[in-house]
Specification:
The chain is an alpha+beta fold and 272 residues long. The protein has one domain. It is built from three helices and ten strands; from the N terminus they run ααβββββαβββββ. Strands 6-5-3-4-7-8 form a six-stranded mixed sheet, covered by helices on one side. Strand 1 and strand 2 form a beta hairpin. The longest helix is centred in the first third of the chain and has 50 residues. The chain is globular. The chain starts with 23 loop residues before the first helix and ends in a 10-residue tail after the last strand.
Length: 272
C-alpha cells in the first residue's frame, strides 16, 4: 500500500511526503477541540432555537389578529365574545368533555391551517382545550388569551389601540406558578382570558378599580408567588395591541395601575 498521496512529478522510487493516516496525536487534538467547542455549540443552538420559537409565536399572533378582525368584519365590527357563559354571565359553560367555547372557538375558522393558537414554547399544562366550532370530537388548543373588557365590544371603541393589549401569551389555571386567583369559583379552564386579581368582571366601579392591582394569567412563571423574573421568551412574553402592533411585556407590565394613573396596556373601553 502506498505510504502517501500519489505525486506524478516524483522521481521513480522516490517516497512521497506525508501519509494518508491520522495519528493518535491528531485524534487527541480533535477530541480536545470537540470537548472545548461543544458548550459553545450547544449554547449557540439554544439561542437559535429560542429565536426560532419566538418568531413562530410572532407569526401565530399576527395570524390570530387577522382572524379576530375577519370575525369582526362578519359580526358588526365587534370583537368575538370571550366565552359562552353560564347564567351568571361570568363562569364559562363547558361541554360534556369539560371544554369551554371561547373566542378561540369563534376565530378558529378564520385561521390559516399553517398557523396555531399554541406558542411553541408553551408547556402542555398551560394550554386550554377549547371546544371546536365544527367538531364534537376535536379540540382547539390555545396558549393565548384575550383581554377581557374587549370581548364583544365594537372595534372602534378602543382608545389608543396601538398601546392596548388585545391578545397575549397566557397560562391556564395558574400553571407553572403564574398568577391566577381562579375567580370563576371553581376549577375550570381559564387561560383563554386575561383578567385582574379582583375578579374576572370588568372593574367598572371606583372601588373595584382601586382594588385591581395586577393582571392575571399572563405567562410569567412565578408571578403567583412574587418571584417572576421573565416570561416564555426569556425576559418577556409577546402580545399584540388592538391595532396589530407587536408588544413585549415584562413582569412589571402586569400592573393595572402605574403610579397614579392607568397602565396604557390595560386601558378600558369608554364607559367601563
Amino acid at each position: 500500500m502506498s505510504d502517501g498521496p500519489y505525486d506524478p512529478n516524483a522521481l521513480e522510487g522516490e517516497k512521497p511526503q506525508g501519509h494518508q493516516y491520522v495519528s493518535l496525536k491528531d485524534l487527541r487534538t480533535l477530541a480536545i477541540c470537540g470537548v472545548v467547542a461543544a458548550p459553545f455549540m450547544f449554547f449557540g443552538y439554544g439561542i437559535l432555537r429560542r429565536n426560532s420559537d419566538r418568531h413562530v409565536c410572532i407569526s401565530d399572533l399576527r395570524a390570530i389578529y387577522t382572524a379576530v378582525n375577519l370575525y369582526a368584519d362578519q359580526h358588526d365590527n365587534r370583537f368575538p365574545p370571550i366565552a359562552r357563559t353560564e347564567l351568571d354571565g361570568v363562569t364559562p359553560s363547558l361541554d360534556e368533555t369539560g371544554r369551554p367555547y371561547t373566542w378561540v372557538s369563534d376565530t378558529a375558522p378564520f385561521m390559516s391551517t399553517r398557523q396555531s393558537f399554541l406558542c411553541p414554547t408553551a408547556t402542555a399544562v398551560e394550554a386550554v382545550k377549547n371546544e371546536s366550532p365544527d367538531s364534537t370530537t376535536k379540540s382547539v388548543p390555545s396558549a393565548y388569551g384575550m383581554y377581557a373588557p374587549y370581548g364583544g365590544v365594537l372595534t372602534s371603541l378602543v382608545e389608543t389601540p396601538e398601546q392596548v393589549v388585545l391578545i397575549a401569551e397566557t397560562s391556564d389555571r395558574g400553571a407553572n406558578g403564574t398568577l391566577d386567583p381562579k375567580p370563576f369559583g371553581k376549577d375550570v379552564p381559564d387561560g383563554f382570558v386575561i383578567g385582574w386579581t379582583s375578579g374576572n368582571t370588568t372593574p367598572n366601579t371606583a372601588a373595584l378599580k382601586a382594588a385591581t392591582k395586577r393582571v392575571t394569567r399572563l405567562a410569567f412563571p412565578g408571578m403567583g408567588t412574587g418571584t417572576a423574573t421573565g416570561g416564555r421568551h426569556d425576559a418577556f412574553i409577546q402580545a399584540l395591541s388592538a391595532s396589530g402592533e407587536l408588544l413585549y411585556l415584562h413582569p412589571d407590565d402586569a400592573q393595572f395601575h402605574t403610579g397614579g394613573g392607568t397602565n396604557p396596556h390595560w386601558r378600558l373601553p369608554p364607559g367601563y
